[in-house]
Amino acid sequence: MKSLEQIVSEIQPLDQGAAEAAGRHLDSLTKPPGSLGKLEEVARQLAGMSGKTIPEPGKKAVIVMAGDHGVCEEGVSAFPAEVTPQMVLNFLNGGAAVNVLARHTGAEVVCVDIGVNADLEHPQLVSRKIRKGTRNMAVEPAMTEHEAVDAILVGVQVVQELVDQGYSLFATGEMGIGNTTPSSAILAVLTGTEVGITVGRGTGIDDDRLRHKQAVIERAIERNRPDAGRPLDVLAKVGGLEIAGLTGVILGAALNRCPVVIDGFISSAAALLASRIAPHSASYMIASHLSQEQGHALLLEAVGISPMLRMDMRLGEGTGAVLAFPLIEAAVKIMREMATFANAGISKALDA
């Protein structure tokens, strides 16, 4: 297994020649230039990733990283931590929303236990547990930096195994009761934004618990003093194992020059970390949707990506990312199947 430093050094920028060639091809199609908007933007991006003017469609997987959070001891969530392993089994049995939407879009759900605070066994479970949940970040660092790096490398390895099986389009998903709390902390530290702006209601907490959640995050940041200039330090001190795993998924996709579709708030926290660890990785990200969770727009802006959909969703699991799969495939089909002016015998507009 490569080291994190080696992985970061091998992530390359997009092939601008291929992206420009894709742009010329798009302008030759039977439509006004740029009239397909985001689809054309995605098509050029996919060409730059693959190095091919006309990208090829590939197998799709949503990688659901699951982990528990010690900060749940502070009462920051409307749901008890026991829900995490229960939901993991729901994913594995095909009963969660992400399973339904993945079946609808022809994608595989890959569920990874990277830090669930329970002993889980299932033939479909990818068991890569770093530890049974993070420590309580309001009291001490959530992880050691070594644990955070190991969790990132798990994500890279899972992607590599799927690439070796023929998958080439990935989405980020997660499960971990309490995980909007570390995500809000990550956003606050890495962007210098006040905690009151980054913190949302997560699973649906009331006003009193929202104020409590904000105070817990402020205490965690004050106690741990994460260094905004060192994303690994931020991840270790106020992050989560599934967030680290998703950071690795994003880096692994970029390493293999594959698109990775970013889901909601938690996935976008991982995206921000990945972009700070390896700036070129942001070029391989496609933002799926804008979550209702407060702070999500700030996260996307910090990464430098814009959402394709606005669906008022806040479930997580990868549900929004999976819904974006057909749009990405539509961009590929436009490139592969749409007629050009020349071969359709249609006159192009005169230059202005």
Topology of this protein?
Layout: H1 4-10, H2 16-27, H3 38-50, E1 59-67, H4 83-92, H5 97-105, E2 108-115, E3 126-127, H6 145-164, E4 167-175, H7 180-191, H8 195-198, H9 207-224, H10 231-238, H11 241-255, E5 260-262, H12 265-277, E6 285-287, H13 296-303, H14 319-337, H15 341-344
Parallel strand pairs: 1-2, 1-4, 2-3, 4-5, 5-6
In CATH terms, what is the fold-level topology of the largest domain?
Rossmann fold
Tell me the count of domains.
Answer: 2
Low-confidence stretches: none
Major sheet: 6 strands, parallel
Number of strands: 6
CATH secondary-structure class of the largest domain: Alpha Beta
Strand coverage percent: 5-15%
Overall CATH architecture of the largest domain: 3-Layer(aba) Sandwich
- The pLDDT mean sits at 96
Q: What percent of the residues sit in helical stretches (DSSP H or I)? A: 40-55%
From the alpha carbons, calculate the radius of gyration and give it in angstroms: 20 Å
Instruction: Specify the number of helices.
Output: 15
Main sheet strand line-up:
3-2-1-4-5-6
Shape: globular
